[in-house]
Amino acid sequence: MSDQEVNRPKLQKLIDFLRKLEPKKFDFNRVWNPDENAEGGCGTCGCAIGWCPTVFPDEVSPPNVSKRVQNVTHIESGKRDYSEVAEALFNIEGYTAHNLFTPRRQDIVHPDLQYVSAAATPQRVADMLTQFLELVEQGEIKGHK
Q: Is 51 part of any domain?
């Protein structure tokens, strides 16, 4: 099996977005939360993948919003799980994508990768994703280049 070429420009675009995002508009524990009491223009908060419809509007569509939490986002390719969206957008292997974008699982990707809890700020997630890109560049993430 050959190494996958991570789509660095797209992942960097998400990182840049997260660095500017207000923490009150971010919940790393939920992909999409249509909470009418949430702060922000659209009345929602979302995790890193939950914000992908905003960052990549031509590639990712928001879920059908209802009054309950939606833990799915879909992409033109028909992907529904957040890790599948990350895999398709950033060309990150599925198991790696799942652990990278799930709270408390980053050490499974690499033991030196910053631990990110469910209460993480968007800036903390951006730092972790930046570190992931650095580890990929150094050849430290198995199956990726």
A: yes
Q: Residue 2: inside a domain, yes or no?
A: no
What does the alpha-carbon distance between residue 20 and residue 122 come to, in Å, rounded to a whole number? 8
Domains contained in the chain, number: 1
Residue 56 three-state SS:
coil
Range of the domain at 71: 8-136
Residue pLDDT, tens place only, 85-125: 888 899 999 899 999 998 999 999 999 998 899 899 999 99
Mean pLDDT of 66-81: 46
- For residue range 22-49, list pLDDT tens digits in order: 998 888 877 655 554 444 434 455 788 8
Strand partners, 46: 26
Question: Which of 36, 31, 35 is closest to 48 using CA atoms?
Answer: 31
Q: Which tokens belong to 84?
A: 């599948």
Please give the radius of gyration of the chain, using alpha carbons only, rounded to the nearest integer. 14
CA distance 88 to 78: 10
Residue 145 is assigned to a structural domain of this protein: no
- 144 inside domain: no
DSSP code of residue 67: S
